[in-house]
């Protein structure tokens, strides 16, 4: 009995440390602050400000290579990130302690260590023995970390979240970053969710970078009337490369964007041709600061 009580108290202590202070105490409640207080890139106020910033969005499919079901390969995901050398990475379909595919670790934390970046993880749903959600990796310190629950069209829909953080860039600059992963099987739900995303992020005064798996194709007029009214995409038009599926790319559903439009100039936008690590292709863009 004493051993059982000790375990319960220890478990409660762990869970209380991990409760997200920004939303009610209901599932999902987990936000991991990770290395947000500057394991990497801290003490940079006297450094020269960045002239440009590189950022990536990548749905990592829980690091499960599609050709090797039942396995995980975080090294493959980390290699993609290291070769692209982004300052900020937005990750979707990230597992923490789930036990899925025989893996019980913390994917965001491990990828952060492999790439030498700070991180924060935002749970969307409890899954198996752990949590499943989205994450941010950053070369620079992350602060002001918040998670928002996005609306559902139907009660049975999967909970979706918006993760937001402030990035302390070299010099005196700071920017906001936001990551999300919208409902996959309902256009109406995606419109509800992007309206909420635009409302939340529209209240942020700092320049902002947004990335994620929007699960929406570019011809969705109702969705993009909201999206493009609030943000500037890093690629628009018929020449934008497809992002899904990685094995047979036939559509665009993964996006990078920013606001306000006058804060940045788009230097490059590319979809990285990495077909094995995930079922999505990573998207990378570089923006020049307009000072």
β-strand percent reads 25-35%
Write down the CATH topology. Answer: Deoxyribonuclease I, Chain A
Output mean pLDDT: 90
Straight-line N-to-C gap: 64 Å
Number of strands: 13
CA radius of gyration: 18 Å
Give the overall silhouette. globular
Structural class: alpha+beta
Pfam family, one: Exo_endo_phos
Domain Endonuclease/exonuclease/phosphatase: 56-280
Organism: Chitinophaga cymbidii
GO biological process, one term: GPI anchor biosynthetic process
What does this molecule look like?
This protein is an alpha+beta fold. It has one domain: Endonuclease/exonuclease/phosphatase (Deoxyribonuclease I, Chain A), CATH 3.60.10. Helix content is 22%, strand content 31%. The strands form 2 sheets. The protein has a 7-stranded mixed beta sheet with strand order 1-4-5-3-2-13-12, covered by helices on one side. Strands 6-7-8-9-11-10 form a 6-stranded mixed beta sheet, with helices on one face. Helix 2 (74-84) packs across helix 3 and helix 4 packs parallel to helix 5 (221-230). 44% of the residues are buried. Residues 1-26 have low confidence and may be disordered.
């Amino acid at each position: 009995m004493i051993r059982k009580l000790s375990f319960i108290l220890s478990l409660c202590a762990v869970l209380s440390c991990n409760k997200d202070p920004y939303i009610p105490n209901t599932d999902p409640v987990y936000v991991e602050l990770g290395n947000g207080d500057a394991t990497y890139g801290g003490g940079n106020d006297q450094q020269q400000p960045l002239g440009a910033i590189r950022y990536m969005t990548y749905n990592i499919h829980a690091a499960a290579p599609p050709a090797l079901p039942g396995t995980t390969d975080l090294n493959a995901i980390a290699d993609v990130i290291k070769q692209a050398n982004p300052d900020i990475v937005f990750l979707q379909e990230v597992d923490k302690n789930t036990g899925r595919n025989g893996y019980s670790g913390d994917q965001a934390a491990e990828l952060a260590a492999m790439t030498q970046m700070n991180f924060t993880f935002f749970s969307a749903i409890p899954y198996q023995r752990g949590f499943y959600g989205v994450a941010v990796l950053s070369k620079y310190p992350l602060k002001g970390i918040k998670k928002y629950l996005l609306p559902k069209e139907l009660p049975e829909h999967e909970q979706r979240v918006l993760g937001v953080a402030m990035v302390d860039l070299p010099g005196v600059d700071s920017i906001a970053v936001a990551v999300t992963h919208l409902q996959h099987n309902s256009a109406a739900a995606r419109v509800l969710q992007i309206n909420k995303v635009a409302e939340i992020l529209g209240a942020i005064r700092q320049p902002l970078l947004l990335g994620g798996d929007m699960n929406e194709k570019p011809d969705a007029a109702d969705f993009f009337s909201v999206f493009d009214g609030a943000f500037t995409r890093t690629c628009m038009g018929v020449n934008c490369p497809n992002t899904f599926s990685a094995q047979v790319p036939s559509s665009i559903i993964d996006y990078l964007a920013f606001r306000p439009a006058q804060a940045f100039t788009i230097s490059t936008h590319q979809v990285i041709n990495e077909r094995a690590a995930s079922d999505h292709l990573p998207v990378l863009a570089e923006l020049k600061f307009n000072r």
